[in-house]
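Ticket #4471: structure export looks truncated?
Reporter: QA, pipeline team
Priority: medium

Steps to reproduce: submit the single chain below to the structure queue and open the exported record.
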Amino acid sequence: MRRLLLTPVLVAGLVAAVALPWQRADGRIATPSDVAGVVRALPHISDAQAAAPRRAPLRFTIVDVAGAVVHAHPGGRVIGTIADTTPLGSHSWAWAFKTTRDRAWAKVGLTWQPNGRTGWIRLAHRARIHTAYWVDADLSRRTLSLMRGRHRLVVFRAGIGAPISPTPTGHFYVTDLVPTGDPSGPFGWFAFGLSGHQPHLPPGWSGGNQLAIHGTNAPSTIGAAASAGCLHVTSAALATLKRHLRLGSPVVIHP
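Actual output as written to the record:
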């Protein structure tokens, strides 16, 4: 069983159900390639680009994947089953990267190791949510941005993995919402468990390998490369993120 890059005591503080704002909409699904384009373009928006005709809203589809049978391709061989809950006890939701033309199947990101695994699930009778909120983590700038579609709402400084345990890059999503119960502890008052894993744990580390965005009681690590792989932000940043993110919200980490 995988564990968060946090201590097991946090499990007791899990929120079983969190009422967060979400939006039901008919916007098209935002794929990883769409997000990559936004990540590349946002820091260099020109006046000409700003004056260009508005594009369709960028929205993401999140699917309730509890108990879903996973196929290699639509109707193809079965490669596994998604658990009803995560190892930390949260209901299983996932970011749907794309759907078939008839909307009968969705390609979802998986929490299975190694990072980057995907599979196809049937969508019949499964709850779906459309949201515009996501997180853009820029390791080179050591920042974490709350995004709404193509718009950067707020930018936070973030601590990243140390050279010996670099933060993995990729397309992930929130799997767990964890109040720690210890605001002065090493993980701050709240943590967002992510669907990714740290394949390069530092020697002697025993806190698990699941990636997370969380707080810290060492302010000097914010903006520094000093963690076991997780992203460290301030208490205020956690509060802002908590108001907008939910289970399944996309988190894109890039170099």
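Status: closed, not a bug. The export was complete when the record was re-opened. Leaving a note from the reviewer for reference: Residues 7-27, 43-50 have pLDDT under 50 and may be disordered.
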